[in-house]
Specification:
This protein has one domain: Thrombin, subunit H (Beta Barrel). The longest helix is centred in the last third of the chain and has 28 residues. By secondary structure, it is an alpha+beta fold. The protein has 2 helices and 6 strands; from the N terminus they run H-E-E-E-E-E-E-H. The termini are far apart.
Length: about 130
């Protein structure tokens, strides 16, 4: 009897979380105070655009705050850089979130999902 057991690795988990764009969502790096617009967000990570492509390295961890509509949404979050693409996109995972932080992020992503579903329904009804 032959069988194969395969455990998911980080790459397999990468795209399983719903990703969305949240207008007005930024991160502020604790060390430098620099702010970057979040290009997409999921419950497990996010992407930013860093045009200079010199500040971030794969595997690097950093502390940041999450700002929504210029207001503090979550503080003292740790991010880990998973990839640095040639086009300046920096893919990051959240690292070591506490339960409260996880719940707030999940709620934000869920609210965006609900709004997108409502918009799609409204478009279908128009047709």
């Amino acid at each position: 009897m032959d069988f194969d057991v395969r455990l998911p690795n980080d790459d397999d988990q990468l795209r399983k979380a719903f990703r969305t764009r949240v207008p007005g969502l930024f991160i502020r790096i604790a060390e430098s105070g620099r702010e970057y617009q979040v290009k997409d967000l999921s419950a497990s990570g996010f992407a930013i655009l860093e045009e200079e492509r010199k500040r971030f390295k794969e595997g690097q961890t950093f502390q940041f705050d999450l700002l929504l509509a210029k207001k503090l949404f979550l503080t003292q979050i740790t991010g880990k850089i998973m990839r640095v693409l040639d086009n300046g996109i920096i893919g990051c995972n959240f690292a070591g979130l506490d339960r409260r932080q996880e719940m707030k992020l999940d709620k934000l992503v869920l609210e965006v999902q609900k709004r997108l579903i409502e918009l799609r329904k409204a478009k279908k009804e128009e047709i």
